[in-house]
Every structure is written in C-alpha cells, then in structure tokens.
Write a sequence for this structure.
C-alpha cells in the first residue's frame, strides 16, 4: 500500500515542532532565529481572535492570513499535514481500543466552543489560546513534560556524582552533549503543570471513542479551518462511496461519520487516494457546487454563542487590588488591556525566559488572565541584557525590542520593606540589592548612616534607598535579597510605564565620588 | 613553621596582644608583589607570573589546577566587571606549559551563567584548548565545609576548588558598593554556594574565614582596566579606567594591598584587607611588601 504524502509531511512537521521547541532557549546567542512561534504565526485561530480583539492589523499575522487563503483554496489540510497535536493523536490512536463515538460531542458542539471564543474576543477577552491545539500541546510540553525530562536527566546525573564523585567527569562529555542541545538549562516547576498535562491527556483519552475525536468534534482551530475549507474548490471524487466498494470510508479517519462524505471534516490526509483498491478516489479542482454543509451557522447558534461570549467576557474581569499590586508583566508590556487582547497564552515566553522569571498566572490576573505570563521576582528576575521573550512572542503581546530599549522598559518599581530589610530592621550592613542592581547609575544606592546597633553600640552602616526614576523593576534585588523568607525589597506594579531615561553617555564623567563617606 | 602552626600561633597571639601579630607577620620573608605594565595583556600577565618565580614554582607536572577568574556579571570585556579573557587565557597557558594535567575555569556567577560565560569573553577565549574545562557550576558539587571561623562556622564550598592541587585566584580590580573594592580576597566568593548574600552583613570577617580555609597559591589581579565606581558590575564606560597593569603575588593580602593604591586608596581603607591581615593571612603594610616592576 502506498503511503499518503500527508503522513510524511505531518511527521516532518512534528519533528520541526519539537526541534523549534528545544531551540526556543538561550544557547549563547542574543537572537533566536527560529522558534516554535512559527506555528502560531500560521495559526488562523490566533489570527481571527487577534483581529477581533485588537481590532487592528499586525504584519506578524501575515503567515496566518496566507494559511487562511490556502485553506479556502485547498481545504482543511493543516490538520493532517501540519498540526503536531493531530500527528501525536495519529501516532497513539492505534494503541487505544475504540468504543462507540460520544453522541454529546456530535452536532453543533464544536461551534459552541469556537464561536464563544471568537465573540468574547470581540468583547476584548481573547481566550482562544486556552483551546488552541498548538498552545495546548506547547503548554503541556513547557510546563510539565520538558521540565520532567530535564529533572529526570539531572537527577540521574547528580545521583551518579554521589555514587562515584569526581570520577563522573569521565563521562561528562556525553552528558554535556545532551545537556547543551536537548535539556532545559534550569529545572523549573510551574504552576498549572498538572492542569496543562491533564488537558493534553484528556485529548488523548478522547481517542477511546473514535479516531481524531478532538479534531473533528472539539478543536476550535479545526472547526475554523473546516468552515474555511468548505469554500474550497478542491473536491474529492467520488463524492461518496462507490456502490461496489466502501474501502475509503474505512480508511478515512474523520469524514465518513454519517456514512456520507462530509467536506468540513475532510482533513485531506489522502489516505483514501493512497488506499483505494481501484485507484478511483482522487482530489480535483472543480467549480461545481457540491456542498453538503451550510456556510453560515443557523441564527439560534449564532445568537447563543454570542451570548456565551459576552457572558465569558464580563464576569471574568474581576481582580482584587491585592492581585493587581503584584501583577508584573514581561518587559515592554505597557497596557494590561492591550496585553490581554494579544496574548495567546502559548507559554513560549515562560519557556525561553533566561532566569525563569515568568510563570503562568493562576489566580493573580483573574479568571480572564489564566496562563498569561507573570514576573515572579522572588523566583527569577528579568535579565538586564536579555530580549528573548519579546523575540518569541507570536503576536507581539510582548513587544520585540532592541536591547537598549528593553533595558529601559518598566516592569514595576522596587520598594523597601523596612520591617524586614536588614539595615533598617537589624541595623547591620547588607546592600546585596545595590550590588546586583544592573542599572549603570544604580537605581538602588546607599548612604552611610550612624546608628545605634541592637547591642547598644554606635556604628556606621550603609542604608539603601531607591532612585524611583531609574528603577525598571527587573526584580534582581528582590530575587537576591538574602533574607530567607519574605524579601526586604519587593517589586510592585505601576500604572505609569514610561521608560526610564537612557544611561548617561559614556563621555560624560561621573560626578559622584563613590568613596566619599 | 608551616601554615597551620603559624595560624595557631597567630590565633593565640591575637587573643593575648594584637601587637604580637604584627611582629609575627613581619618576621616572615617580605611579601613579594610583581607588577607588570603594558598593552599586551597576555605578555604582562606572563611577566607578572615570572616575577614571582614562574608558574613552575606552583604547578607540578600532572597537577589539577583551578583558575578562578571573576566572571560573575553579564557585562562585556570593556566594561571591566569581569577578569579580562586575555589575562585568564595567559594564566591557563602558563599552567599548561608548567605541565598541568587539567585546568578548570569556573565561577559561581551572579547573572545568568550562560550569559556571563559568553559575554565575559572567557568561555570563548578558552574554547578548544586541550586539557582546559570552562564549565558552569553544578550545584551537587558544593560540599558543606567546617570553617570554625569568627563569623562563618561552616559553608558550602565548591569541591573542584577544594580538591585541586593548585588554586589560582584571578580577580579583576574594581569598585564595590559595600566593601569599597573587590580584589583577590573577595573573589573567593565565586566558590561559595548557598545564600551568599548572607555574608554581606559581616563581609570582612566572613571573607577572612573563607580565605583562611581556601588558600590561593597564586593571586593574579587583572588591573588592565579597573572599574572606579558603580561596582561590582558597572556598565558605564565613564567608570572604566585603563591602567594596563597585571599584579601577581603568592600573598593575596599583599596583592590586594598594592592594588588598592591604584584606586588612590590605602590598604587600611579596605575592611576586608584589614580583617585578613589581622587574621594573619598576609601582609598589608606597603612598606613591608616588596614591589617589583617587571
């Protein structure tokens, strides 16, 4: 039997996806040339939800627009030629015994997923990334599977050290090769790791009922592509099964649900043409109308899903002031509303973040902000010279900035907690924060003060203070604060994200005498 | 008198009368500090090392050597926050020429290790050298070490530094917000694990505690360019002063004491130097240090 070309293509794309995923990491270069964001840039669901939510055009979306055009011309080929999640389902489905298809998933269920997502985008709530198949897969990888791989490898490597000590250096080259090219640099645990993995496993578990269950009955991207593809001029012939043979309906993974060939469900995998015993099945361009499914959903569905979108968009808005005060977004994000409209919650920025400063929001940004990236300075800080998150963000929710501009972007502002900070609370020297502050003129400075120490003696210590207009909120001070539990300095969110002024030119001399007492 | 008995005697003397310590120290050979000047940083590094007796004095054939530069910050070579790669490479080459079996170069960085190793220029400068490793710190290699110091009773130190036959300290001379300067004595922080910021509350005593345990066989201070303000990471070229100097000594305290003068300061201004001197770790009085220009 011939192998359908789609099979080769989808495996190549899955490999490309995994390769790009691993490449979405700092490996000695300030610029990442190819990242897994490419898959989102060709994702029409991202395109439509962005256009509806942001209501303006971005050239980052051009590849997705081309994908729309290709789908309208050819049909829903993305699902069986490109989609890495679909490929994974194709790979595992033969291992999963099937029972009868779930009735509840049939009919208009998939539209009840897609349309509320699109309508809520129109009402400024862009949740499409939550159910986008690429994002679902990427989050499961980023938040659980990849850290798990890293952790297991590292634990094994550490165990070897405890076993044989420095003799381990003998096999280090082999391990280093894997470490440098495959493993994550740092072991990170993410919130929502379990949820992300469970959603992914649930999609696989759905294969229990029929092949490509998620793809044909739920996936909002697939639904969108199916609808776009129903305009296609590429037709399968014969339009149904032949009277003397029904082999194609057995080979077809998706489109012969009702016994009839349904174009919206055809993934153009070409299994039928490759497997037709009579070489009759074929795909041809034809202007003849032969649609079996309406272009426009019925009014009741439209109104119902619109109401659903509105219901999603409003009640999820609520945030407490406490949540707001520590809501720190990646560098370059100046407007929270704009950010929420653009972010696809794909997790790439969190994957690439050099110091693992970014984590998916669970409750901090309200229901609407789940999975959006947050800076948690105590766990990781924003590296001064790094611009990776802006480079990999597929939609520009985190803007791509040159390093000079990124350094000046304000994430938040540092504030001392005098009840904890050592020079204030314990009357001892410390200023680890000042040491680490990356701003060349120092946003954290210190002055000598004479204080009465806890033991009653008089001594001179260095007391830190913050130059508010120089602080970009990178969070390294909070990160390195040597207090063991609550840090003595913390970054708080600000409304005014005016960039800090650029460093003084290298020609001008510094006036301050650093040794003056 | 070996180092242990010397330290014991020094410690006992410290308890009885501080003046005895100065006497005990002055009884030794005067500390030798070699200073080389020139725009060829590799050449002046070699000259400075030859000035204190050459690398063969420290490194024997087959030795495992640790060369510990300061590459703690994600800054460029010119910005002066990290040891100059040419100085590091020259030290490493001297070790290999003396017969070292392996030279290990590492630092427990403050910024992201990958960026520091790359942007300091040190990883690149050592790339492809046979017998030389320039690898990131691996957490499991830190060992809890009993120090019984005045401030630090124990601390996690890096096993490769502890087990090496020769430990060569290659700091860059620069300003520091808390300790005024960071030189050889403070560079030892790069082999410390754990919550290093903790020692800031008593940094001069803590560093004496560590340096008393981890003795640098040779200290080579990079003063090719120094950071005069906003240290230890700087970032502005206005704070960088080019001196074209490399300093070498077997006495870290003496090397630090001399390097202090390059900033227009006196050794007594630097609490870290004073604490190490009082601990008997070396000489800080400039009139008792023999400085040779090579």
């Amino acid at each position: 039997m011939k192998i359908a070309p789609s099979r080769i293509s989808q495996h190549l794309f899955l490999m490309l996806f995994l390769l790009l995923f691993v490449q979405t990491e700092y490996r000695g270069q300030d610029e990442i040339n190819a990242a897994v964001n490419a898959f989102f840039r060709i994702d029409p669901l991202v395109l439509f939800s962005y256009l509806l939510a942001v209501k303006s055009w971005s050239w980052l979306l051009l590849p997705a627009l081309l994908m729309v055009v290709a789908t309208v011309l050819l049909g829903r080929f993305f699902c069986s030629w490109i989609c890495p999640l679909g490929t994974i389902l194709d790979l595992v489905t033969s291992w999963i015994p099937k029972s009868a298809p779930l009735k509840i998933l049939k009919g208009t269920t998939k539209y009840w997923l897609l349309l509320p997502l699109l309508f809520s985008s129109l009402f400024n709530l862009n949740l499409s990334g939550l159910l986008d198949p690429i994002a679902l897969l990427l989050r499961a990888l980023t938040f659980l599977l990849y850290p798990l791989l890293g952790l297991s490898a590292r634990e094994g490597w550490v165990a070897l050290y405890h076993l044989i000590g420095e003799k381990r250096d003998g096999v280090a080259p082999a391990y280093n090769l894997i470490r440098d090219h495959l493993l994550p640099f740092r072991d990170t645990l993410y919130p929502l790791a379990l949820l992300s993995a469970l959603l992914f496993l649930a999609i696989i578990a759905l294969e229990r009922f029929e092949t490509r269950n998620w793809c044909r009955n739920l996936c909002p991207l697939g639904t969108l592509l199916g609808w776009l593809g129903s305009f296609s001029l590429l037709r399968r012939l014969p339009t149904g099964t032949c009277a003397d043979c029904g082999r194609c309906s057995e080979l077809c993974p998706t489109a012969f649900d009702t016994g009839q060939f349904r174009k919206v469900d055809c993934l153009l995998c070409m299994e039928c043409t490759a497997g037709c015993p009579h070489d009759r099945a074929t795909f041809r361009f034809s202007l003849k109308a032969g649609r079996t499914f309406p272009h426009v959903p019925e009014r009741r569905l439209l109104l119902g899903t619109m109401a659903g979108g509105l219901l999603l968009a409003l009640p999820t808005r609520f945030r407490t002031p406490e949540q707001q005060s520590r809501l720190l977004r990646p560098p370059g994000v100046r407007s929270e509303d704009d950010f929420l409209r653009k972010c696809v919650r794909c997790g790439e920025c969190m994957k690439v973040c050099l110091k693992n400063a970014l984590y998916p929001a669970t409750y901090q940004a309200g229901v609407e902000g789940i999975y959006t990236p947050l800076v948690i300075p105590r766990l990781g800080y924003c590296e001064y010279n790094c611009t990776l998150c802006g480079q990999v963000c597929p939609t520009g929710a985190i803007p791509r900035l040159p390093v000079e501009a990124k350094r000046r972007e304000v994430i938040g502002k540092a504030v001392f907690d005098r009840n904890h900070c050592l020079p204030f609370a314990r009357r001892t020297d410390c200023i680890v924060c000042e040491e680490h502050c990356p701003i060349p003129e120092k946003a954290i400075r210190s002055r000598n003060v004479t204080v009465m120490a806890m033991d009653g003696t008089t001594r001179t210590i260095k007391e830190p203070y913050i130059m508010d207009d120089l602080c970009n909120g990178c969070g390294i001070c909070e990160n390195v604060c040597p207090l063991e539990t609550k840090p003595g300095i913390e970054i708080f969110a600000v409304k005014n994200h005016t960039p800090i002024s650029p460093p003084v030119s290298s020609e001008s001399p510094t006036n301050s005498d650093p040794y003056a007492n | 008198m070996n180092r242990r008995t010397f330290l014991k005697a020094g410690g006992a003397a410290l308890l009885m009368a501080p003046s005895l310590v100065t006497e005990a120290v002055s009884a030794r050979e005067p500390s030798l500090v070699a200073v080389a000047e020139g725009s060829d940083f590799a050449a002046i590094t070699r000259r400075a090392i030859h000035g204190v007796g050459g690398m063969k004095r420290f490194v024997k054939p087959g030795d495992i050597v640790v060369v510990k530069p300061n590459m703690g910050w994600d800054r460029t070579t010119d910005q002066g926050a990290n040891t100059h790669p040419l100085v590091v490479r020259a030290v490493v080459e001297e070790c290999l020429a003396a017969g070292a079996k392996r030279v290990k170069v590492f630092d427990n960085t403050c910024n992201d290790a990958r960026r520091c190793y790359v942007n300091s220029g040190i990883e690149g400068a050592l790339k492809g050298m046979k017998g030389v490793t320039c690898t990131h710190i691996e957490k499991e290699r830190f060992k809890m070490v009993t120090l019984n110091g005045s401030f630090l009773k124990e601390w996690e130190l890096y096993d490769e530094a502890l087990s090496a036959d020769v430990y060569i300290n290659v700091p860059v001379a620069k300003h520091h917000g808390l300790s005024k300067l960071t030189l050889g004595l403070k560079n030892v922080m790069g082999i410390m694990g754990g919550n290093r910021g903790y020692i800031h509350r008593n940094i001069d005593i803590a560093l004496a505690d560590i340096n008393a345990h981890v003795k640098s066989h040779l200290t080579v201070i990079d003063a090719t360019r120094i950071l005069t303000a906003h240290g230890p990471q700087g970032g502005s070229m206005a704070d960088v002063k080019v001196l074209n100097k490399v300093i070498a000594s077997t006495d870290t305290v003496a090397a630090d004491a001399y390097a202090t003068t390059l900033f227009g300061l006196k050794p007594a201004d630097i609490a870290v130097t004073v604490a190490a001197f009082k601990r008997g770790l070396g000489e800080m009085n400039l009139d008792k240090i023999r400085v040779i220009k090579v």
Notes: The longest strand of chain B covers residues 218-227. Chain B touches chain A at residues 74, 110-112, 114-115, 118-119, 135, 138-141, 159-160, 163, 175-178, 180, 195-198, 200-203, 228-239, 263, 265, 269 (CB under 8 Å). The domain at 31-293 of chain B is CATH 3.40.50.11440 (Rossmann fold). Residues 14 and 21 of chain B are 6 Å apart (CA to CA).
